[in-house]
Amino acid sequence: MDILQKIARYREEEEKLKWEGTFAEYLKILKEKPWVAQSAHSRVYNMIKDAGVEEVNGRKRYTFFSQHLFGLEEALERLVEEYFHPAAKRLDVRKRILLLMGPVGGGKSTLVTLLKRGLEEYSKTERGAVYAIKGCPMHEDPLHLIPHHLREDFYREYGIRIEGELSPLNMMRLEKEYGGRIEDVLVERIFFSENRRVGIGTFSPSDPKSQDIADLTGSIDFSTIAEYGSESDPRAYRFDGELNKANRGIMEFQEMLKCDEKFLWHLLSLTQEGNFKAGRFALISADELIIAHTNETEYRSFIANKKNEALHSRIIVMPIPYNLRVSEEERIYEKMIRESDVADVHIAPHTLRIAAMFTILTRLKESKRPDVDLLKKMRLYDGEMIEGFSEVDVEELKKEHPDEGMSGIDPRYVINRISACIIRKGVPSINALDVLRSLKEGLDQHPSITKEDRERYLNFISLVRKEYDEIAKQEVQKAFVYSYEESAKTLMDNYLDNVEAYCNKTKLRDPLTGEEMNPDEKLMRSIEEQIGISENAKKAFREEILIRISAYARKGQRFDYNSHERLREAIQKKLFADLKDIVKITTSTKTPDEQQLKKINEVVARLIDEYGYNSTSANELLRYVGSLLNR
Ligand SMILES: Nc1ncnc2c1ncn2[C@@H]1O[C@H](COP(=O)(O)OP(=O)(O)OP(=O)(O)O)[C@@H](O)[C@H]1O
Ligand SMILES: [Mg+2]
Questions:
Q1: How confident is the model over 334-340, as a mean pLDDT?
Q2: Is the C-beta atom of 66 inside 6 A of ligand 1?
């Protein structure tokens, strides 16, 4: 299907969804689908829930967010459970302004945008359908037409509670256009669209001195006063402020605390009673979710000001901290790069991971535990299994600093440095060293870094540089082994067979001759010695491994090469030990002989085919490792 056909199909589908009828007909819809009368908050909550909820490690993960926001599961769970869910149940929190508070570049705007775009789509679905009084600039809820004294009866018949008053404009239209006959008032299905200013609005503060409340609540239309005779005729008023337009949906209030405090006071009645004042009219009921965002500094000075107390108690603050997991940070960069114009540059394996390690380190706070340094904490947070630590320890660590994640380097800075380094290098390929160098240089130009932080950050750069050196060496050594995974697995299986026989005091059978043999002590020791296991400790080590294997078996899991951190290390070292010299000589020679050249080409080919390098980055890696091994 070409694009023109798709456009036509899209238009047809939009047409099909349209509906218009009288209020009487709308009531029939309500009988069948009572949920269309839900409040804005409830619609947002259902939108999130309908997209799916997974339970991962006792933590809820909402599909609605998880495709776009990474590593914020805890904050999002809190947001949904403590705000959206109770707000959907018409509890009082829904009248509060939701204020997302977090460090720069931590995903606040992304989160709000997701909700706004999501709601636009949701309003086109059956479950998210919204109906409004036709021709109303505020898309008023048709149920407001039902007079107060009948609302209890309505509830008994329909099971739907009505909240809010008919607006002055529709009150007048009801009299003038429909002669007071509520059942004839025209109702239509509406579709949220920020561009068309239906149900989605954004307000951003301008100069605090000249900020006009009309931007929020609309204003008198002077050209029509002559026609209607008075400023208090609602027809002479333009209900086109952001609060009006966002009625039934979401209004984003950008940088709310940058507004003048007097301006914010206008929000008091809105947050108290769910209605706002416009012009010379009675209060107007608003059914909308107001989401504001701000950073910590602004928030602190806002609450420090006594004058803001009244408003403060009408705000629900939800912290949106930085992500603290390396793997998720890597995904953030991947996403940002995919969306940028440097998407086609080759980024060598481990590059983004190394950058992410640096970033996460800048966000972490030292633990009081002497056995946990920042690197270890970083690994634990990322879900790595470290001997002697369990889930419980990780939770304990998190509790030590509740404000962790509110400071540090933001993802935009990293992406800027990656772009800078791509442009400078001029080759369509970058590696971890390039990025670390660029991050380091950028620290000098970074506007908001103190001298102490700078020192700390430089330290982190050398720390992750060491991590990278290890990774780089391992990568090259692996590439030197023909079919590394296979060899490691064979060696490991062999070792485990021998350990089993040793512990159970049985014999092994030679696979070729069928002859019985004793466990191969020399083989076992050659592996154990790699990680410093002494003759005295070997028995305990072997028994521990057997216990581990049977624990895995009980859970129905396979014990494999990656299941035991230290054993993996031992196997790897054993495989590399035999190679050490050849790697060292081959990678560092300036004038390789024919044999060496063949090996180099073989290794480069393997790095490209199996490890995701291109020829530039593979050769850079070999050269770097050569220099490391010859230090
Ligand atoms: N946890 C995250 N998951 C996915 N992307 C993220 C995350 N944190 C930040 N980003 C990305 O980083 C960039 C900056 O995020 P965003 O603009 O949403 O931050 P912000 O909190 O609104 O920042 P500011 O305070 O500067 O307005 C965006 O491209 C966003 O996609
Ligand atoms: Mg923002």
A1: 92
A2: no
